[in-house]
Each structure stands twice: as C-alpha cells, then as structure tokens.
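RETRY 2/3 - previous attempt timed out on the joint model. Re-submitting the same 696-residue input unchanged.
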Amino acid sequence: MNCVLEGNCVKAFGRAIHALSRIGEELWLDPMVGGPAASLLVLQLALRSVNAAHSAYACFLFSQLFFQHYSLGSASEQGNETVKCKLVIKSLLPLFRCLTSIERNVERCQISISTPSDRVTIQFFCRHDAVLHIVNTWWQCAPNSPSAFVIGITKTHSFRFQESEALQAVFASHSCPNVLQAPASRLLSDTVMHFPVSQEEITLSVTPLRLSLRNHYERGNVHMKIINTEISLPPDEFDAFQVGVDSDITFCLKELRGLLSFAESHCLPVSVHFGAAGKPVCFSVDNLVLKATVVLATLIDSESGGPSQSPETPAPTTPRCAGAAAPPVGSYDAGNSKPQDFPAVTELIASSQGSPIINPPALGQPCAAISASTMICSLLFRALSSEQEDAADDLPVLASRSDTEEEED
Amino acid sequence: MCLHFSTTMPLSTQSQAQDEQYVLVASLDNARNLSNILKAISFKDHAIFSATTNGLKVTVEDSKCLQANAFIQAEIFQEFTIREDLVGFQVTLTVLLDCLNIFGGSTAPGVSTALRMCYRGYGYPLTLFLEEGGVVTVCKIKTQEPEEPIDFEFCSSNVTNKVILQSESLKEAFSELDMTSEVLQITMSPSQPYFRLSTFGNSGNAHYDYPKDSDMMELFRCTKTQINRYKMSLLKPTTKALALSCKVSVRIDNRGILSLQYMVRNDDGQICFVEYYCCPDEETDDE
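RETRY 2/3 succeeded.
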C-alpha cells in the first residue's frame, strides 16, 4: 500500500491517531477494498484500535478521496491480499505530536507498507519557507514536474509492524432505537467539558423530552466529596432526536473525548446510536472523505435510577437466544438463528474474513455474577474474566477476529 | 568554597594595588554573558579554564571521547587583564555556575549581576566578586591542578565534509530525535542524501534529510560520502549549545571525528563560540 496525503489532511490524520491513542495501545492499519456496496471497488484505509478490556473500539475510515494518491500496490487485486498491520501507537504519536507545526511545515506525507521487510514507512516532506511553497505548488501543476521537489527537511520514519488479522466491530446502528445527532458545533464537546478530566464514566439518560448527562460513580463508593454534575439538553439542541426507548446508558467518557475533539476540529456533527443499558453505544462522524466511529460498551446496572428500562426491554434472564423475548424495537435483539439474513449495515466495516455476525441480546445472569467493578458488559469481543468460562460461549460476541481464541490482554 | 556577604564594598572601589596580586582579572557588567555559555557545556562537574590575551577558553570533557570548549574573547569582557602568557586552572563547574547565579538569576529587565573574576595564580582559589543592586557577594572557589585537555588533532586540512546550517532546522530534528536509539548516525555526501541524521530506536528507524540547496544550508562542502555513528549519550549535551546558537557548522575529518561549532549571541548581541568534538562509535566502519 502506498498513499500520499497533502498538508491539511496530514493534520486530520494526526488527529485521528491522537483520538485512537485514547482508546488502545495498538493501531491496526488496514488498507482495503470495499465499501457499503460490495460491487463498488472503493479503496479505503482503516485505522482501528481497541482497548485492553475490549470495551471500546474506534475506527477511522479514510476513503480514497482523502488522499492525493492511494494505491494498494501490485499484489492486491482483492482485499484479501492486502496486508493488515498492527503498530504500537506510542511509536506513531511522536510523529504527530505537534499538529500546529505539521500544519506549518509539512508539505505532504507519504505512507507505505512494505511486506517483504514488514515495515511501515511514514515520510514527511517539509517545506522551509512560505514563499518557496508557492513556487513548489506551481511546479506540481506543471506537467511532468518532478514529484520530489524537496525544499525542506525530509523526515523518514519506518516501523516494524506485526501482521495481524483485521480488527472489526459489527454494530447494528441502523436498528438502534435511539438516534441522536448533535449539530456541527461544539455542543457535545462543550457539554462534556463540565466533567473533570479524571471523570471515568458518565451516564446519558434520554427520554423523548430531554437528554441528560451526569457523572457516574460506583454504588457503594459514595464519597461526600464527589461533585455531582448533571447537564440537561432539550431535543431542539440536536439536529436529530429520535428516542424509541427511554434509557440510561453509562459508558467511559475518557475514551470518547478523542472523537469529540476530532469532530470539533473538523466541524462535524456527531451521531449517537444506542439502545437500552447494556447494549453498546456508537458515536460517529462522517464527511465525504472520512468516517470515524467509536463504539463503547455500556454498563448493565439493574439498579440504575428507577424505571429507566422500558417494558419492551427483554427480561434480563436469558443469556442468549432472546428471540423469543424480542422487543418490538426491532431486529436488534433477534436471535442468532439467521446471521446471513442480517441486512447490510451502514456502520459495518467490510469483513474480508466473512466472520459471522452475532447480535448481542441483553446480558443476563452471567453478568450478575460479575463483581461491581467489572460490570462493563456487552463486550465487543470474546473477552471476559475467567469466572465466566461457561458463560463465555453463551455471551454475545459483537465482533470477532476470525481465528483468534486467545485474548490480548 | 567560602562565601562572604558584604554591603560595604562595591566592586568599583577595589584599589589598583589589590589588582596587582592577580594574574587574571576579568570583569563583566552582566554575568549572564559568561554563565549562559558555560551552562551550554556543563555536562560534567569539572571544567578546565585556560586564559590568554585572546580571552578565556573553558573546556569540559567526557570519557576521552567528547570535548566541549567555550570561547569568550577578551573583547566581551569590560575588563580583561592577564599578567602571564597562559593562565590555567580547574574548578568545579557546577559550583561556579551556582555562584554566578547567586542572586537568583532573575531575568528582570535592567537588572543584572556584575562580575569580577580574579585569580592570583597556582594554589590560590578563584575569587568572584558579584554585585547586584548594591549587594556584593564574594565567592572563593577552590582550584585544582588543570588536567591536560585532549588534543583531538582536528585540523581544517583533514576535514572531508563540512556544512553550515541555520540552527533552527537542526533544533527541529534534535527535538524529535528518538532517544531510544543508542547512536546518532550522520551521513554526509556530495550526492543524495547530502546530509542525513539517522536513529535506530526501539520502534523503528528515522532519517532526517537536509537538502543541499535551501536557505537552511548556508554552506555545503562535501567531498566524499561518509557515514559515521556517534553515541547518542555523548551528543545529547550538545542540544544545550544548539538551543543558544543561531548557526552550526558540522565538520567531519578523515578519521570520522565530528566537530560541531555553534555561533552563540549573548545578551548584548556579541558573538561567542562553543565547539564540541566527538569520536565516532568504535563499532562502525566508514563506508
């Protein structure tokens, strides 16, 4: 794979890496072919990360249009042949540490993956002087202009990567009962700004009449010194406000902040798809050339504030096959009987491995056995504590790596 | 070292007779013009002072592989009197710097510490008279037998490759250098990549290539391709001198010895020089 990004896009790319670094320690770099419709040969580059607990996943998907130049290389007729690399985010972060100096100095950036040497190479072609930059632009417009007109420092970084199966999460966003869209303003960023940086989790409560965010702390850990913050927003603050199921979802705020600052810097509206507590919540932004998604697990907490669960939600007793108790909210809780019939999902990232898609029903008893401190459920992967050995098979797998049984912890 | 505090003896009232006992008297209205440049070479405890009629040279060495020299010409000083051809002594540099900054090293405008540095000769301490806002401090620093600085026998005629760069561009590279790399490799060549800094760290390799024709490169004179590696730990101290400088000259001779010369402007706009010599890392062969 070989791609070239010009100036401003390098900054966006850097921001994506910053956002992904809030999620996990490793980054999956996945050049791919595909898109929503399999017939369209759309070239894309996906950057993904997942946290150690497998309760947060992020994906930045850049389309071909984002790049000045993008090619998969000679041995890549089908997506299956492209290399999927795993890199340590800590190695990449220093390259994009100072985004303002990137904006000022970097003319273009070239990223290439070399399979024989197992290396990813990132090259920055820097400009030295603003006046000379104009000259450079003229050069590049001229036909047959030399493609390497270097007027400043060229920085070449190469990293060893680990070849890895693609990371993917499957999230049935289109069938979520609750869909919000925050406008392309700083609405969500400004709202979460009121929570201290150390705040781990927040609870988002929604009814058709209002949305509120409050900080979450574990029950039994009531300290008199905690400052409780609650922010309410009326539906008219949002571009879209569809509440099918009143719900309170608690998720990790820290992992979301990266996406929110990305959205703010690109002036993009943020879409939120979620259901009842226990089901994952998906935050996403997109524009013509890129799409960013963060999927977070939410707490199952049967004690959470009163009648927050609507009667439609299935009783939390069946660990699996909730088909029988499927709520009218849709096929979201459909059993795993016919995975192949699952309709194409806009959030779905094309799986080159064709892993089965399993919908997670609400988690029941197995989760009740988990101690309060590990109640983050609705895991994206087969990754639960060892106490759940038996239940592990029964627990829903939102996403899977095709032939992995061991966990990466 | 011992300190005397006195409010009754401004520097200017010292009598001429007292001066005659000193082999070296050097005065500065602003002690920072000395302390800043000494900070740039303060990577080891001891410094060798060597004064001639040309001025003061301060040398610091590390493990026989690295040597730093700071040159403060006689013209920089408000007074520079030397009664012998060569005056040499060794002091603990950290102590000297502490004394030069004894008034707190504040950077308030118009406020500076005045310095009068006096040395009677072999066996005597180095006496510093420091004054700020009417308060005078006298510091006497024990001197030691000066060690012989290493002579790297670096001469211009043996220089294979030389470039002069604007410090800004080198500062950028040095601030980003991968410190997990044990060595810094410097490639100088009349052909591509011309001038390249490379690191080989835990996560991967990095190369910084400087084009030969750009504003950053004030002089480019490379005759032969040379690739040399230098221990990162030895070169790390040079970043202090780089930070103070406006221009750097990078020269490598036919043995691979690296000479870095930094042009430093002091508070009053006067030019001083700091130079570093570094031996190549033993394990590499020149290509």
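Residues 156-278 of chain B form a domain with the Proliferating Cell Nuclear Antigen fold (CATH 3.70.10.10). Closing ticket.
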